[in-house]
Amino acid sequence: MQDELRIVIPGDDPPQMQGSLHLERLKRYGKVIVYTDRPETSEEKIKRAQGAKVIINSRGLVKWPGDVLRELPHLEMIATCSIGVDNFDLDTAREMGVVICNQPGRTAPVVAEHAFGLMFAVAKRAAYFTKTMKAGQWPRLDSVFLRGKTLGVLGTGPIGSEMVRLAVSIGMKVIAWTYNPSDERARDLGVTYVSLEELFKQSDVISLHAKLTDDSRHLINKETLAKMKRNAILINCGRGGLVDTEALVEALQLGNLGGAGLDVFETEPISSDHPLLQMEQVVLTPHCADMTPEGVDMLNEGAVDNVIAFLEGNPKNMVY
Fold first, then answer.
1. Structural domains in the chain?
2. 268 has catalytic annotation
């Protein structure tokens, strides 16, 4: 019966969907259950999601490996409040017939603005100047003038495309790389597609917006970092796994990179003694690029839209 259908949000911490008016739209489809704390164990995740036909995964910190998914025989659909789906075992989900729906491009302007802000914060040495002035000093150190510099955009999907637009608006030259470049896409964006080798070589700033796949994991590594300009700035609002963290730390420590602005990390949250936290040329944010009131509302609306589309027999934004 329809009133027995269970829609579960298994770990809404930090708060994302709890209290959202968008959840009201789901009540006519079944029972909506929201857990406002994060499940600490696999057993707790299974217990919370048991019997659910639909899961809304509002937080990327809640992972769904294959062994957990296999314990949920009634599950048919997962809607995620994100673009990335690397917190799901997609092979197992496909094997089980579980549909996973994400939200490609929905918050692209919000995320790109955050990446743009990180670029400015690093270029203008905001973290260093703030820290030293709070310590009673009056530092003198040149910052970076971005107009006329070359931005290399790695990945020209919705977010990368927005980053191109923002960079062009302040007079930066933009080059780009993508897995499937085309002359038409280059004309639409107003960029020149180049090889990865050329992008690393030419760019004063590199901004990462590629999907995390087996091919793209550690795309930024010791070898590719060595190809970059010594004073280049690296921005990552994509996925932490795009960057080999140890290689990045080494490049920064040796002065082989000008700085980095990072919103995502290979392990989240990062440890309190992580070397990145000690680096004055690094600006960090806690995986919050789309966490504005507007961004949160967009994602909540999109997740509910995806659930309703699935329940009404017209699924959209399926990842496979």
1. 2-106+293-311 (3.40.50.720), 108-284 (3.40.50.720)
2. yes
In tens, the pLDDT along 146-185 reads: 999 999 999 999 999 999 999 999 999 999 999 999 999 9
Starting at the edge strand found earlier in the chain, the sheet holding 77-80 runs 31-34, 6-9, 54-57, 77-80, 99-101
Active site residue 74: no
**113 flagged as catalytic:** no
CA distances from 197 to 111, 132, 267, 294 (A): 26, 37, 28, 37
Instruction: Name residue 235's beta-bridge partners.
Output: 207, 261
Q: Which of 48, 239, 250, 280 is catalytic?
A: 239
State the pTM of this model.
0.90
Distance of CA 271 to the CA centre of its chain: 19
Residue pLDDT, tens place only, 23-81: 999 999 999 999 999 999 999 999 999 999 999 999 888 999 999 999 999 999 999 99
Task: For residue 70, count CB atoms less than 10 angstroms from its CB and return exposed for 0-12, middle for 13-18, buried for 19 or more.
Answer: middle
